[in-house]
Amino acid sequence: MVNVLDIKVLRDLWAMRTQVLSIALLIAAGLAVLVMSVSNYLALVGAMDAHYRTERFGDVFASLKRAPNSLVERIREIDGIGVVEARVTQMVRVIRADTELPISGRIISVPPSSQPALNRLHLVEGRWIDPARRDEIIINAAFAHARMIRPGDAIEVILNGRLQVFRVAGTALSPEFVFATRSALPLPDDRNFVVLWASEDAVAGAFDMQGAFNDLVITLGPGAAKAAVIEELDRLLIPYGGIGAHDRRELPSNRLLEDELAEQETLSIVMPTVFFGIAAFLLHVVLGRLIEAQREQIASLKALGLSNLPIALHYFKFVTVIALIGAGIGLALGAWFAVLVIDSYRAFFRFPALEAHLAPWIVALAVLASLLVANAAAATAVYRVARLPPAEGMRPQVPAVTPLAQHIGVMSERGIPMSYLMALRTIVGRPVRTLLTISGIALAVPLVLFGLFWFDAIAHMIDVAFGRIERGDAFVTFVTPVPARALHELRSVPGVLLVEGQRIVPARLVAGHRSYRTSLVGLSSQSELKVLRDAALASVAVPDDGLMLSRPLAEHLGLQIGDIITVEVQEAKRPVFHLCLVKISDDILGVSATMDIAALNRMMREDDAFNAASLKLDESQSRIVWQRIQAMPKIEASSVKALWLALFDETIAGMIIVGALVLAGFGLLIAIGVVYNSARVALQERAWELASLRILGFTRREVATILLSELVFELIVAIPIGLTAGYALIKFIVSLRVRESFQVPVVIEPRSYAMAALVVIAAAAASAFVVRRRIDNLDLVAVLKTRD
Amino acid sequence: MTLGEDTSQPRALAGDHPVFIARGLSKVYGSGDACVYALRDVDLEIRQGEFLVLLGPSGSGKSTLLNILGGLDAPTSGSATWRDHELTGASDADLTAYRREHVGFVFQFYNLIPNLTVRENVRLVAQIASDPMCPEEALELVGLSHRLDYFPSQLSGGEQQRVAVARAIVKRPDILLCDEPTGALDADTGRLVLGAISKVNAELGTTTVVITHNSAIAGMANRILRLSGGRIAREELNRTPLRAEDVTW
Ligand SMILES: Nc1ncnc2c1ncn2[C@@H]1O[C@H](COP(=O)(O)OP(=O)(O)OP(=O)(O)O)[C@@H](O)[C@H]1O
Ligand SMILES: [Mg+2]
């Protein structure tokens, strides 16, 4: 025989189907964030590990000026060395008919007839180079894609000042260039940066490096001590112009990747915890109210002799069904959004295989978590209700007659409409429930705000980075340091309005046992095109003498003002200096090491030397400007702000916006779940009272006002609390970001606050509309019968 | 003024012209073989100031009839008019206005608003009426002046029902409709409530319809209708209605 209570479960589920669905969506939103962020993190880590393993990514890298191939044998003898791959690599320039802008590239030698032993290539299109032909080349797939280059196409490369035409044999991905980037840019610049792999003969021939190498990729043997190996390598390489061997950590691509993954890891724990935590709390509130609204039924069942257990089981079944629906929707949504987000990552992370993947344990975890949370919520609510003696439970729940409630009566004498009075009485008569509902609505706000925040943060970062800090229109770097004369030459190009030179020195900063590789930037104190700014956007003055570090870098190195720091220059003769840290800046760009350019020149024993420049251009003449600049042999690379911005829009912005929209969407679902349910439960609890008022001759509108003014009150209190909580939550999550490169500012525009509030108000308005329709359709006669 | 004065005089005058006219009222629930006739072809006239009692076994259609008269329910066929108001086919807004302006209801289960005090429950209705009496006055009429600031949960059932009566009459309704007003009360309390209702009928001249299972109460009426199976089975006139305190349960 079918248990009668089981029939009640089904009837209840069906009768409350919209509420059931909205609660399920609440669970679903919490779970979807969990599923999405965990699977994305796992997908990225999985893709990276697989790529690094399959393509045998090196552990240690070293660059030098030139060493004979015979040195390789001696390197292999170092204790702890695994595989050694020696190669020749240089910066080159590429000429394309489809742009007048300079394209810079890195050419790397590979064995003509086989993959290299380390840092292998994953061929995407085409084939390996033909050993018989010296003009064949493989290019990185990202550039090929961005410039629409196919195998068989020709590509013009300026090697060592000589133009050479290569034929593209294939396109490939490399673990070294997951982000293909010139070191300075924290973004893959797929349109204007290319990686080229050509045969050893071709590269060595072009750079007079026959029988020699200038770059090493090394793996370590099992149990090797990395530091010792690096030290030994440096000892061997210094006579050959070695500029310091380093861990793979310091390769730009890998550094960005690891930073990103570390951040994803934190977020993949924090975000779902926050979302699911809030969803769980809301579930508690909503289910609690829903079950409490049935207190009279529960009391009657108890009065009939049922014990607490079957009653509790009844509600467990009820919420289990809801939890399972929620888990189902949550998994589906999560898996779907994971695919969306992974797709948006593809422009950013160049992996051979990056697939969203729903691990069985995540599914199990999601289902378990939702069952647990839902049943815990049901258990406490049932306990609260079942604890009451049946007689008390069967009486309608009457608001406590508190002095405050009495006092409110005085207001009615002053002509406060009775409808507000009734709402107020309900609110103060059941303060705990009112508080829970208010906090429920309040908590939906931060989730929406958190999604919207990213738009503001990005806009702000762009504005600050390109409007306030890098104020030039373009940036060029020189192959070697140039005298002031070269800057004048640039300035004389028609269309160039202003030129400001910089001296950028790659260096290893060492303090005790800590070190950091970065670039020491020499700036003029009168610089207008590059202005360092602190978080308040005030300009940060560069000290006349001594070194200035940004706070994260100073902290990383454990330094304080007045401390002495060792600077190992990684250029040319590799001089080592000791500098005094004179200033710590709150530079919002994250990591920076800055000096006055004159002081830097003095230290380097150069006079007035520059190797980079910021330019201000007349946009209308930029074509001619770039044609002229292209022709200047000393210029190594250049980047153009407008292009960079476009690139940013396509990659990072796209990626963040997808994530932000998804989060805001989940926030919206949660907001709807909470507001709709509290409005519905309020209606359910008071349908009888409202119908009585209708019988007395109150209009639909008047009756709706009574119920909805309660909701309005809750909203008015909840939204400011929610916005404040949102700010706090965002501040907290941002503080967890471990990025060294860019500090995300906690900037939330009034528009976003307004939007978040509006979203919740819209959810409330929609709920109010549904409730209003229900009030309109209240069956007055039925209400008279069911009351007892 | 105390309850239970001789109120027979005004009632004897009642019955000049009909205020309610119902013709061929039927109410059918369901359809086909499974249909239930709650009312079958009922013709009825109720006169100004009349005290009418509806008797009849459970399920005979009393509440259905009362609800149609009060503009809470619509008949399946037939017509019901109150003065110049056509109740059948009227819009919800018109019926609401009708209830608001002309009808006072008293139900078996009091239907008070739990989070309003006695005075506020009455004021609630006074606020939406065009010519109400003052709430305290209405409460005095039902003998509850000493409970003005109590909440319903702090009152006995009989007291609550008297609040409901005060609430029904505060707007000076033209018709007072009571569905088993004493159903949940003991004899003494019931008498108090009935006294309040009959006093309103007598002093304000309010046309009053009372449903009851208790035929003793019928002694108070000018006219008694017995319903059975959705029809009016019998009609009795009562030339000497009893006073409430003389009713024996
Ligand atoms: N919503 C409904 N659906 C189906 N049948 C109904 C419905 N409401 C009432 N009925 C039927 O209509 C008939 C008349 O009901 P009504 O409530 O008018 O009876 P009553 O005379 O007031 O009875 P009681 O003295 O028990 O209150 C009953 O047989 C009842 O079963
Ligand atoms: Mg009835």
Describe the 3D structure:
The complex is a heterodimer of chains A (788) and B (249). Chain A contains 22 helices and 20 strands. Chain A has 788 residues and is of the alpha+beta class. Chain A has four domains: 1-57 and 249-397, no CATH class; 58-248, no CATH class; 430-471 and 640-788, no CATH class; 496-617, Barwin-like endoglucanases, CATH 2.40.40. In chain A, the strands form three sheets. A six-stranded mixed barrel of chain A has the order 3-4-9-6-8-7. In chain A, 45% of the residues are buried. In chain B, α4 packs across α5 (135-141) and α6 packs parallel to α7 (187-204). In chain B, the strands form two sheets. Chain B has a six-stranded mixed beta sheet with strand order 6-7-8-3-9-10, sandwiched between helices. Chain B has a four-stranded antiparallel beta sheet with strand order 2-1-4-5, with helices on one face. With 249 residues, chain B is of the alpha/beta class. The model of chain B is unreliable at 1-15 (pLDDT under 50). Chain B has helices at residues 8-13, 62-69, 92-102, 118-128, 135-141, 157-169, 187-204; strands at 18-29, 36-47, 51-55, 77-82, 85-86, 103-106, 175-179, 207-211, 223-228, 231-237. Chain B has one domain (48-75, 84-246): Rossmann fold (3-Layer(aba) Sandwich). The A-B interface holds A 395-396, 398-399, 401, 405-406, 409, 412, 417-418, 421-422, 425-426, 429, 689, 692-700, 702, 776, 780-781, 784, 787-788 and B 63, 67, 70, 72-73, 92-93, 96-97, 99-101, 103, 105, 107, 109, 111, 113-117, 119-120, 123-125, 127-128, 149, 151-154, 167, 179. Bound molecules: adenosine-5'-triphosphate (ATP) and magnesium ion. Adenosine-5'-triphosphate (ATP) binds next to β2 and α2 of chain B.
CATH structural class of chain B: Alpha Beta
The domain count of chain B comes to: 1
Fraction of helical residues of chain B: 25-40%
- Strand count of chain B: 10
List the helices and strands and how they pair.
The complex is a heterodimer of chains A (788) and B (249).
Chain A: H1 4-15, H2 17-54, E1 60-68, H3 71-76, E2 81-87, E3 89-95, E4 103-110, E5 122-126, E6 136-140, H4 141-146, E7 154-159, E8 162-173, E9 193-199, H5 200-206, E10 212-220, H6 226-237, E11 246-247, H7 252-292, H8 295-303, H9 308-345, H10 360-386, H11 390-394, H12 403-413, H13 418-429, H14 431-469, E12 474-483, H15 484-491, E13 496-511, E14 514-523, E15 547-550, H16 551-557, E16 564-569, E17 576-585, E18 593-596, H17 597-603, E19 609-617, H18 622-630, E20 635-640, H19 641-695, H20 700-735, H21 750-776, H22 780-786
Parallel strand pairs in A: 4-9, 6-8, 14-18, 15-17
Antiparallel strand pairs in A: 1-10, 1-11, 2-10, 3-4, 3-7, 5-8, 6-9, 7-8, 12-19, 12-20, 13-14, 13-16, 13-19, 15-18, 16-17
Helix pairs in contact in A: 1-9, 2-7, 2-9, 2-10, 2-19, 7-10, 7-14, 7-19, 9-10, 9-19, 12-13, 13-20, 14-19, 14-20, 14-21, 19-20, 19-21, 20-21
Chain B: H1 8-13, E1 18-29, E2 36-47, E3 51-55, H2 62-69, E4 77-82, E5 85-86, H3 92-102, E6 103-106, H4 118-128, H5 135-141, H6 157-169, E7 175-179, H7 187-204, E8 207-211, E9 223-228, E10 231-237
Parallel strand pairs in B: 3-8, 3-9, 6-7, 7-8
Antiparallel strand pairs in B: 1-2, 1-4, 4-5, 9-10
Helix pairs in contact in B: 4-5, 4-6, 5-6, 6-7
Bound molecules: adenosine-5'-triphosphate and magnesium ion.
